[in-house]
Amino acid sequence: MEKVRSTKLKFKGEKIKKRKREYGDEEPSAGKRADEDEDPETWVLPENPAEIRGPTFIIHPSDPSPISVNFDSTRNKIILSSLNKDSSSDSDAPPLLDRTPTEVAQVWVITRVAGSPTINLRTGTGEGKFLSCDKHGIVSAFREARGPEEEWTPVLLPDGMVAFMNVYENYLSVDEVAGGSLQLRGDSEEVGFRERFWVKIQNKYKKEAHEEKKKREGGSELTVIDETSTNHMHQAWGAGRSVVSKEDKRELKRARKEGRLAEALLDRRAKLKSDRFC
């Protein structure tokens, strides 16, 4: 019998409810990372700045309603949208850290050059515009090319929240303007409540960063090996006798010969100099 497919519309990255582990099910192996059991597209919190990459959901715990940083591709404008707009009351809304994006406008795509502490935030909808901040602190997303003003340094805070520092060493913040509306600014010199954001990434990108870290650590271990000792160990046997090719032997002979000639020349010069003063 053909399996009936669910007609429920799901946003990419939505958490998949798993059945509870029953008696006799295999327990996870000891030492295994907890996020390895998660679905690759589950939205999780980063544990270090290097994990902030790929599709990203940025929210701020504003009062009375938390907001998400959105991009309106129709108006080419950044919008700070209430996350409780679809709830009848704040009490009906799910906990803030359980929220996941429900529309593409809420997703930013974060890229970085390998090894660089800075990131670029590109809109996930429209033609892909970069989040930018000029020297006056004006934040926008209308540039299609990246430059210094499109670079941000994520700073992971002790409580797990993230602050974004721009090229002018100021921080991204939520600012209240005339009429009570909210907008992003980039001229805060210190990190306070307005400069702190919750950032959620997809689990597969967190695991990707973890794998890259392991590879880097493995490569750094190789660099501390004593190359001379290693080469000698792999190219010698017996009493440490070195094995060299015929070409190497000729080079060694020539070097020794030139060395003896140089020594004889220096001795000759020293003798002539001493005879001169006698």
UniProtKB/TrEMBL annotation:
The keyword Electron transport does not apply. Signal peptide: none annotated. It is found in: Nucleus, Nucleolus. The keyword Translocase does not apply. Residues 1-21 have a biased composition (Basic residues). Pfam families: FRG1. InterPro entries: Actin-crosslinking, FRG1. One of its GO terms (molecular function) is actin filament binding. Its main location: nucleus. GO terms for cellular component: catalytic step 2 spliceosome; nucleolus. Belongs to the FRG1 family. Residues 1-49, 227-251 are annotated as: Disordered. It comes from the Eukaryota. This is Actin-crosslinking protein. Keywords: Nucleus.
